[in-house]
Design brief:
Elements (H helix, E strand, L loop, with lengths): L1 H12 L2 H18 L5 H14 L8 H4 L3 H15 L6 E3 H11 L5 H12 L7 E3 H13 L6 H7 L12 E3 H13 L8 H8 L7 E3 H9 L2 H7 L8
Antiparallel strand pairs: 1-2, 3-4
């Protein structure tokens, strides 16, 4: 029974059912177009793309954010496509257009949030180095907490459309929010130790600017080591 339980946990943790359902759905669509599609070859190719991380190219945002592997694969594809322009200064609108070439329905709200975080400390102009903006964007994609009750109740008033100066919460509420966030965790989060380290200086004040907190996390290299991801160099 224990062996069976471990196998079931593996299937759940690796999202096998999710990918099987997606593969079958896409197979049916392909066969509607061409009845000669070879089922075995189609499924083989599908899972090769999943393994290689190329399966998120031109997929919708709902699919991309469905699993951690999808999010990491999406970010890897973005970096691979645009790395040659890593030193270029870029506007928020230009960055949005580049992202939407890979994910056509990618929401501008996350891009706005990433842009505000990137501007919060190092930059105060319309153009930001691509690598700096991408590193912040990477953070917001990976650590978006979908459906968290704590997030909705505490931070709902801080719309991504608001300015950096308005994204402020009281330190008391921030301290109360952190354990609630982990209690309602529905996706990956930074380790508690990493979070405490990055918040240490900020909680000395009576209020905390959330973008300053995000910025501290983004540039804390241990965060990326925890995930086993390569740190994106910044200019």
């Amino acid at each position: 029974m224990e062996d069976l339980s471990q196998k079931l946990n593996y299937l759940s943790d690796s999202n096998v059912q999710f990918y099987l359902e997606d593969a079958l759905s896409r197979l049916l669509l392909a066969r509607d177009t061409d009845s000669r599609v070879n089922t075995r070859q189609f499924l083989t190719d599908y899972f090769k793309h999943v393994k290689n991380g190329t399966h998120t190219m031109l997929r919708d945002n709902t699919f991309i954010k469905s699993t951690v592997h999808n999010r990491i694969s999406f970010l890897s594809n973005v970096w691979r496509c645009y790395r040659p322009m890593s030193a270029r200064l870029i506007t928020k609108h230009e960055f949005c257009l580049l992202i939407q070439l890979i994910c056509p329905d990618f929401p501008s709200s996350i891009l706005n949030l990433a842009y505000q975080t990137a501007q919060s400390r190092d930059f105060d102009c319309s153009k930001i180095p691509f690598t700096n903006l991408f590193r912040v964007f990477q953070f917001h994609i990976l650590f978006e907490v979908s459906g968290s009750t704590a997030t909705q109740t505490e931070f709902s008033e801080h719309s991504p459309e608001r300015t950096n100066a308005e994204a402020v919460v009281s330190t008391a509420n921030f301290k109360r929010f952190i354990p609630e966030m982990y209690a309602h965790q529905s996706f990956i989060l930074p380790s508690k130790q990493t979070l405490r380290t990055c918040a240490k200086d900020l909680i000395q004040e009576t209020t905390i600017n959330l973008h300053h907190f995000f910025h501290a996390l983004v540039y804390y290299d241990t965060l990326w080591d925890e995930l086993g991801l390569t740190v994106i160099p910044t200019g």
